[in-house]
Design a protein that fits this description.
The chain is built from eight helices and nine strands. It is of the alpha+beta class and 284 residues long.
Length: 284
């Protein structure tokens, strides 16, 4: 019997190896477990670690490694050569995994909607309102921003906050009022090591505060123009002696990165469920 190629997506292969042990899958396809494992490695599909199925059988919690996205389109389609007849067990495993993903997605959507409802959509934060005593939830991150050393562009960052150093105080005031607003509505702003999070009884989402930036054409200073003329004269002289160079002469970057002072609060939810995901400086 000539081998037949069965075609799956990376997502389907991921579903299979996390719903059925590889040894059993290999038997269903009529290939070796080593060969099946190599197919997973080739398509960057993670497989369960040793002890995973023992935990499942014992009813213990076992962490499932998610499938990360890849840009290489050649990896998206998986072909497995097999002499075994079409397996109903494989089809059942794929159908069960698809149903499980759908249920999990719907539950995440309901959770995000409950979190959104618990926070009033019209709540506003006045970043110019003075603060006498900072909310305890952001005291630590305020110290981090105060001690942060700006990079070459003048940017400072700490725990999900990335702003220009001249916007430091305003960013701290926004975080203070955000912490107060969250607490007023039964939530809590937490500055953890891996970033800011707003948590409620329904769940938690990561939060970020960032300053808008834009790229604009650099306007050279008089000193830069003078240096440019010097370099140009030197190159003209070199060329008169047949010493040719084609390097860029302008002693400045073509574009400047300008931080606008406009701040945006955003959250990284579970996906796009039609909910608003960011709030920026406006007219009010």
């Amino acid at each position: 019997m000539a081998p037949t190629k069965r075609t799956f997506t990376r997502e389907e292969l991921h579903d299979l190896v996390w719903s059925t042990p590889i040894l059993k899958l290999a038997e269903e396809f009529g290939i070796s477990d080593r060969g099946f494992a190599k197919i997973c490695i080739r398509h960057l599909v993670p497989t369960p670690p040793r002890g995973y199925w023992a935990k499942i059988e014992a009813g213990l919690p076992a962490k499932k490694t998610p499938l990360r996205s890849v840009e290489n389109k050649a990896l998206h389609q998986v072909e497995i050569a097999t002499r075994a007849p079409r397996s109903e067990a494989i089809l059942a495993a794929l159908a069960a995994a698809k149903a499980e993903r759908k249920l999990a997605s719907e539950e995440r959507k309901r959770t995000m909607e409950r979190i959104a409802v618990s926070m009033p959509a019209t709540q506003s934060i006045d970043a110019d309102q003075p603060v006498d005593v900072l909310h305890k939830a952001i005291a630590q991150i305020a110290k981090q921003l105060e001690r942060a050393k700006p990079d070459s562009d003048g940017v400072i960052s700490a725990n999900g906050v990335c702003v220009h150093e001249r916007t430091r105080e305003r960013a701290v005031r926004i975080l203070h009022h955000l912490a107060v607003a969250a607490e007023t509505n039964g939530a809590k702003l937490v500055a953890a090591e891996n970033g800011l999070r707003v948590s409620t009884s329904e769940g938690a989402v990561g939060v970020s505060l960032a300053e808008e930036r834009r790229r604009q054409k650099h306007t050279p200073t008089e000193a830069e123009l003078a240096e440019y003329q010097r370099l140009k004269a030197k190159r003209d002289k070199d060329r008169s002696w047949s010493r040719w160079t084609f390097d860029r002469l302008e002693p400045w970057a073509e574009f400047d990165i300008v931080y606008t002072g406009k701040l945006t609060i955003g959250y990284n939810g579970y996906g796009n469920f039609g909910l608003r995901k960011s709030w920026s400086d406006g007219k009010s």
